Amino acid sequence: MNIEKYMLDVGQRARAASREIGKAEAGAKNAALLAMANAIDKAAGHLLAANELDMIAAQKNDLDAALLDRLQLNNSRIRSMSDGLRQIAALPDPVGAITDLNYRPSGIQVGRMRVPLGVIGIIYEARPNVTADAAGLCLKAGNATILRGGSEALHSNQAIAACIHEVLRAQNLPADAVQVVETTDRAAVGAMIRMNKFVDVIVPRGGKGLIERIAKEATVPVIKHLDGICHVYIDDKADLEQAINIAFNAKTHRYGTCNTMETLLVAEDIAERALARLVPMYQEQGVELRGCAKTRARFPAMKAAVEADWHTEYLAPILSIRVVKDMDEAMDHIRTYGSAHTDAIVTEDYTRARRFLREVDSASVMVNASTRFADGFEFGLGAEIGISTDKLHARGPVGLEGLTTQKFIVLGAGQIRQ
User: Count of CB atoms within 10 A of residue 328's CB?
Assistant: First the structure.
């Protein structure tokens, strides 16, 4: 296969489809989304069989536990895909929405209209659910999308894409609005990220190596996050039971996700009580604990945390623990070692909670809630195309609004500039 020629054809078809899908009525898009959800539910058995082929190959290739977790489909995750599509259908259509319409002294009205970005390229590893999530979000926001999944999820992605294409054709919408790159040749990625004429933005989802490569080599704008080094800080004014539940959930709910807590920070005045409860709970779950000197003074058998631990996104049952003097020291730690993804405080002190929200410069900042909620579905976005820790043009979980842009519109009645 001539990769350059193939990708050029994909890009041209995507650009043509973007013009059609960009002017589709909200009702037509919503009907397609609901039909996609039903098709995925109906095809659950087929999707599980396709995913099993990918899982067998992945295990033979010794993929790590975090990647296997992201790759695996089950009935619950399939339902989450279809539920996400239904939730997207229920959301207001952002395309064409006009805001900030005001009269100027000249008599003209100036406002802003939300419009699609155009063509969005998604490059992702494992995570077959991204195929459905990305297709649904891009469709609702009036964009065409080019999906390039990893070789480890080839059968799963193709099976999900088949459901989507069947629906698009049945709904008289352009099938090329959702294209799955058919080759696993890495050269296709290199071609896609330089197709400025046909692709408007790239969203990479996967390991740090993939995202670093895309950010370095792309000439197309990129929406990304590199690391998910998330923190939970237990303040000395925390409700202890609440703190225990949040800190345990934030680490053990799932290990291989970017919103999983990797470092627990505990105020020294509550550390004795909090860690006496949490340490045995983590150990019972098989979590390896690595502590600072103050933590190990209380639990001398714990492995010592080194400088690299505070910088590490484990994506595994490993947790770093640091006892800090107060919230200011906790925030200093987050500023030094955090990845601007998601950070949480557990406290009953309203003033401290407000300060934490204001001063911690992360894409998602939480009070008295698990970091695991940093997710497009949980935030009510229907699903997410990815999470951005950049500040332009989108930040945090990227949903419909993040997949559109704005243009100025002017309404006049014959005015000319004097």
Answer: 12
The encoded tokens of residue 271 equal: 């550390």
What per-residue confidence (pLDDT) applies to 382? 66
The residue count of the chain comes to: 418
Bridge partners, 256 (sequence order): none
Q: Are 132 and 36 in contact (CB under 8 A)?
A: yes
Task: Note whether 123 and 210 are within 8 A (CB).
Answer: yes
pLDDT at 205 over 90: no
Q: Helix or strand or coil: residue 271?
A: helix
Indicate the DSSP class of residue 222: B
Is residue 165 reached through a cis peptide bond, with omega within 30 degrees of 0 on the bond before it?
A: no
Neighbouring CB atoms inside 10 A of 169's CB total 11
Tens digits of residue pLDDT in 68-112: 988 999 999 999 999 999 999 999 999 999 999 999 999 999 999
Sheet with 109-116: strands ordered across: 98-103, 109-116, 404-411
Structure tokens belonging to residue 310: 């505070």
Would you state the pLDDT for residue 225?
A: 87
What is the DSSP pairing of strand 364-367 with strand 288-291?
unpaired
Query: pTM value?
Result: 0.86
Question: Identity (one letter) of the amino acid at 48?
Answer: L
CA–CA separation, 238 vs 221, rounded Å? 42
Return d(Cα 317, Cα 315) in angstroms, integer.
7
One-letter amino acid identity for 96? G
Kindly report the backbone phi and psi dihedral angles of residue 28, in degrees, each rounded to the nearest multiple of 5, phi listed first. -70, -40
pLDDT above 90: residue 380: no
Show Cβ contacts of residue 19 under 8 Å, excluding neighbours closer than 6 positions.
none
How far apart (Å, rounded) are the C-alpha atoms in residues 73 and 374? 21
Q: How far is CA 17 from CA 169, 178, 250, 395, in A?
A: 13, 9, 41, 27
